[in-house]
Amino acid sequence: MVRDDIGNSLQIILTDINRFQDNLFLTWNRSEDQLHFLFGKPIIVDQHSRSSQIKLFIGTSFHFLDMEISHDQGHLHTRIYHDPVVDQYQLLNQFQAERSSCLPSRLLQSMLMYAVRCCSNEQNFDYERLYLKLVYLLYGFSENFFNNCIEQFYKQFYACEVNYLVDRVPYETLRRRVKKRY
To answer: What pLDDT digit, counting tens, does each position of 63-103 carry?
Structure first.
C-alpha cells in the first residue's frame, strides 16, 4: 500500500491493517499529514455513498466491537473493552447452573481463551481474569471453584507445572499455544 513516489527519505510504516467482515482499520505511527500523503490526497469522507462508508478517527485508542485497541509508545495493545452500561457476562447462578447443560467451568475456559487471544499483554489478561473472577463471585460461585478452573486452564495449555501462580510459562508462550489450538 506504500506509493512509489514516497522516496527513501520518508519511511512511512503501516503498523497494522486489520479486517473484520466489511470493516477495515489501520493503525499508524506517523503524522496525519504523512497519512494523507500516503493516499495521495486528503482523505474525504463521503457521507452520501452507500456502498462504502469511511469513518475517520485519529487518536491513541478506540473501541471496535468488544475490543479496545490502543497505541502506546510505538506498540499496539489490545484488550477486551467493558462497556460500563452493559452487563457483558450474564451467567447462571450456581443453583441454576446445576440444572443447566451449559457448564460454568466450560464457559469460563472459553472466556479465558478469548481473553488470551484478545489481550496483547499479561497485565491486560490479568485484569480480565480478575474481572471474570469478580463476575463469578457475584453470581455465587466460590473462589475455590474459580481458582480450580484457572488452574485447569493453565494445565490445558501446558502453561504450569505445579502452581499456576508461581510456575507459569511466559505470557507470549501461553498466547501462542491458545492461538494454535483455537
So the answer is: 777 778 887 777 777 888 877 776 666 555 545 555 454 57
In the structure grid, which three cell numbers stand for residue 92, read together?
Answer: 447462571
Helix pair 143-156, 104-118: axis angle to 10 deg? 60
Q: Are 48 and 41 in contact (CB under 8 A)?
A: no
Residue 4: phi and psi, rounded to 5, are -65, -35
Cell digits of residue 85: 452500561
H-state helical runs in 2-103: 32-39, 94-98
Grid cell digits, residue 100: 443447566
> What ranges do the domains of the chain cover?
4-58, 87-181
Q: How many helices (H) and strands (E) does the chain have?
A: 6, 5
pTM: 0.63
- C-alpha cell read off for 24: 477495515
